[in-house]
Amino acid sequence: MLSATGGLYHPLLSICLALFLLLIPGEAYKDISDATLTSLPRPNGDFDIHNGALLAPILQPRVPGTPGATAVLEHLVNYVRTTLPNWHIELHNSTSTTPVSKGTPVKFVNIIASRDPPWANKGDIGRLNLVAHYDSKLEPTGFIGAIDSAAPCAMIMHAMRSIDAALTAKWEKMRVAGHTLEDAEGIQVIFMDGEEAFQSWSDDDSLYGARALAEQWDSEVNPALSTYKTPLSSISVFMLLDLLGAKDPTIQSYFEATHWAYKKLAALERRFRALKQFKSTTPRPWFPDAAKSESQIPKSLGIGDDHVPFLHRGVEILHIIDAASGSGMPFPAVWHTIDDDAEHLDMDTVEDWSMLVTAFAAEWLELEEYMSASGGNSSTKDAGHQNEKHSNWARKTEFS
Ligand SMILES: *[C@@H]1O[C@H](CO)[C@@H](O)[C@H](O)[C@H]1NC(C)=O
Ligand SMILES: *[C@@H]1O[C@H](CO)[C@@H](O)[C@H](O)[C@H]1NC(C)=O
Ligand SMILES: [Zn+2]
After folding, report:
1. Residue of 46, 193, 195, 218 with catalytic role
2. What is the torsional sign of CA 378, 383, 384, 386?
3. pLDDT in tens, 153-204
4. Residue of the CA atom closest to atom 12 of ligand 1
5. Could you say which of 10, 95, 161, 184 would form a disulfide bridge with 117 (CB–CB 3.0 to 4.6 Å)?
6. Which residue's alpha carbon is nearest to atom 8 within ligand 2?
């Protein structure tokens, strides 16, 4: 499982890959500069497992309908309300019985936080969606679910605040310049509830929050003449993080339509490491399918997870889950055991993931000019800008 990907870092191969990316016709997507990659804020003490402001409060049992779930819900909501006042927050509630609820409905609460250009009409704005589930599994008793998915929630929280000022700066510049009719994308974060099965995984016992949300967003209709007909169709990509925080992850590429974005993540990992901005070391890159073409990635629906109800309705999915291919247990060794706790997290890896998600979001939302170390002054030229003319531009055709 570990050896299959050796050699991916061969320099010639990297050059070929880079050329290949440059040659994709009409594709365009501005790479973030080295200067920005080196100056991104780190989570530092906020990821401390004992008293860190972001991660520690999530590291407790949070089974839907229990006080732990309410406490974590409040933590996430309060974070957005206090740290990210420009974000809109909404709770999506649903109820369902479960195999162990003895006929009593259990309440599931998805947390949806979004930020759009201030002039945008609801229905006219596509959004990058970052998603992780915040519930934890009922069994084993005391299960924490640190990689599953406390740490991914914290990674997203860090990414949200790290791009927030740049979003403000970008949209203010567009507004002042009168460019409010141009394409601008928003961002939406979903902290999903009820991902875990209560008894054993099945279509009915799993994905409680995601199934209810996908169904609602499919049937809800945006105002007449909207660019996007439903809230579901305004999802540019559904980027789901799950089972992240163990050392040396293996992230496979599952979907042809988003394989190009998967490659972007692989390129960012490579660049972070080359710039010595990653704390973790790894014997092999995290994204072993980066050198594959679309046609070489396996045709499957991937792994059962919160994306499935969205995938079935045609949403483009980027599933970032640590799962090896081949025989044997694909997930990290602590998966669904009592050992999936704070102490088993590899904190360097957790931090690095938060940087990678931040950089990816900044690239996707084209924030390079606004992410500079000086705090997003777009007229400040820094060293990184001189690379821009060599960077590839890609039009996100399939999403626009
Ligand atoms: C959804 O549930 C939350 C938390 O239980 C509650 O505060 C909120 O009012 C509910 N929202 C709606 C629209 O029912
Ligand atoms: C940005 O930097 C330029 C050049 O250093 C300066 O003239 C300008 O006032 C700055 N703008 C903001 C909004 O800080
Ligand atoms: Zn799980």
Report:
1. 195
2. positive
3. 999 999 999 999 999 999 999 999 998 877 789 999 999 999 999 999 999 9
4. 93
5. 184
6. 379
Q: What is the pLDDT of residue 230?
A: 96
| Residue 124 DSSP symbol | S
- Please answer whether residues 192 and 306 qualify as being in contact, where contact means their C-beta atoms are separated by less than 8 angstroms: yes
Look up residue 172 and give its DSSP letter. Answer: H
Task: Report pTM.
Answer: 0.85
Q: What is the pLDDT of residue 400?
A: 26
The single residue of 164, 185, 218, 242 carrying the catalytic annotation is 242
CA of 86 to the centre of ligand 3 (A): 32
Distances, alpha carbon 242 to alpha carbons 130, 160, 246, 249, 348, in Å: 11, 17, 11, 11, 17
Q: Cα angle vertex 129, ends 123, 133, to 5°?
A: 125
Q: Is 377 in the pocket of ligand 2 (CB under 6 A)?
A: yes
| CB-ligand 2 contact for 176 (6 Å cutoff) | no
Find the Cα–Cα–Cα–Cα dihedral 16, 20, 21, 23, rounded to 10°. 140
> Residue ranges per domain, the chain?
36-371
215 is known as an active-site residue: no
Tokens coding 289: 């399918």
319: β partners: 240
Exposure of 362 in the CB half-sphere (CA atoms within 13 A): 32
CATH 3.40.630.10 for domain 36-371: yes
- Among 244, 220, 242, residue whose Cα is nearest residue 232: 220
As to burial, measured by CB atoms within 10 angstroms (0-12 exposed, 13-18 middle, 19+ buried), residue 350 is: buried
User: Which pair of structure tokens corresponds to residue 149?
Assistant: 């998915």
- Residue 314's contacts (CB-CB under 8 Å, 6 or more residues apart) are 232
Q: What is the pLDDT of residue 29?
A: 65
Write the CA distances from 166 to 97, 232, 369, integer angstroms: 43, 26, 8
